[in-house]
Amino acid sequence: MLYEELLASCKPRFDEFFRNVPVFENQFTWSGFNQECYDYMYTANSSDHIAPVKELKEKIPGLKKMCRKCGSFFIPARNKSIPKYDVIMGQQHEEALMGFLQDKLGAKTERADTENKSLPDCKILKRDGTTAAYFEVKYHGAPFVSAKNLTGRYCYEGSATLDHKKIEKQLALIEEGLDAPVFYVHWLDYPCLKGIFYETSSQVRDYISHRHEVFERAKREGDDMKSKKAVYLKKMYSPLLSMRSFEEFVDELRGLLDS
Fold first, then answer.
1. Interior CA angle at 120 toward 255 and 227, to 5°?
2. 90 burial via Cβ count (<10 Å: 0-12, 13-18, 19+)
3. pTM for the complete prediction?
4. What is the pLDDT of residues 88-120, one digit of tens each?
């Protein structure tokens, strides 16, 4: 599985970066338990009948126990956020994925947001130096444990966050005319479901226009350290079962590189 390869490739980086940071017991790991969660929560699941957590607990050994641990770890209020650290942490995941894709596809990857902060984070280049695709990387290390009560979604399916206003601005820029397709890549690292999943900018635009829920999170202490324009309280949650897999993402990029 490609996700296991990704974890192996970035283990030294994350071991060092998170050395003094409290993380959940199985963060940045993969096990048979996670494979079963992937199979039941994603592969065999259906958007027509999204499997309830209660039903999944009956099918996946160990899920009840893991849910209790997950709630105990993530539910306590975590209202402090250090913007500078959050940015650096996000870059760790972006760079890890960029490096993996570069090695896997033999194509140069680099940051795109250094040219324009409104652009997606990253891009992958064809041999002639033109852009094959842009991609925005979103790492989700904590599920939205209270999702069912606050948005009506199951936590494993409805925790892939996008900043609503930020994405609207970015989609407007895309419509003005970028030179390559744009993908939104969600790196899910929950105690149960783990993997790389992605959606196209068209999917995100459609979801914003027609069906999405918006949840306004509480203001955090770290928000006062940002400019008002950089504080995004309104969140939307991309539907897991509309996303495609890591393997499909790599295949799609390979096709764009060869076109």
1. 170
2. middle
3. 0.89
4. 777 899 999 999 999 999 999 999 988 788 888
